[in-house]
Design brief:
Number of helices: 5
InterPro entries: LapA_dom (IPR010445)
Shape: elongated
Protein name: Lipopolysaccharide assembly protein A domain-containing protein
Number of strands: 2
Keywords: Cell membrane, Coiled coil, Membrane, Transmembrane, Transmembrane helix
Structural class: mainly alpha
Largest sheet: 2 strands, antiparallel
Radius of gyration: 31 Å
């Protein structure tokens, strides 16, 4: 059921993006600097492209910047989780070692019963 909802959402999103793209095909010029500042500095970078590429590219750039920002922000949480994971592994090895020492010399069946308890 949720698969169909996801497909319906993606289909409607695709239709909206295609219609926006078809409605905004006119060319626009993007300039790196205002004209007065460009004349003062002696250079200006400009790029002419369809308006829908500017809009969709801005959205894509915002999503990528947001993902990178969150990944950097969550670094401390991932590091803490990694430290805790290593500590759990160490403690599990220690418990296993202590159980083996406790069960030395016991019958195998009794050792298995102690492991379960």
């Amino acid at each position: 059921m949720t698969r169909y909802i996801r497909y319906a959402f993606l289909g409607s999103l695709g239709i909206v993006l295609v219609s926006v793209s078809l409605a905004n095909r006119q060319l626009v010029t993007l300039k790196m600097l205002p004209d007065d500042l460009a004349h003062l500095l002696g250079f200006n970078f400009s790029l002419t492209m369809p308006l829908f590429l500017v809009v969709l590219g801005g959205i894509a750039a915002g999503v990528v910047i947001g993902f990178v920002w969150e990944w950097l922000r969550e670094h401390k949480h991932r590091r803490t989780a990694d430290v805790k994971r290593r500590e759990v592994r160490k403690l599990e090895r220690e418990v296993k070692s202590l159980k083996q020492k406790q069960n030395d010399g016991k019958d195998d069946v009794l050792a298995l019963l102690d492991d379960v308890a």
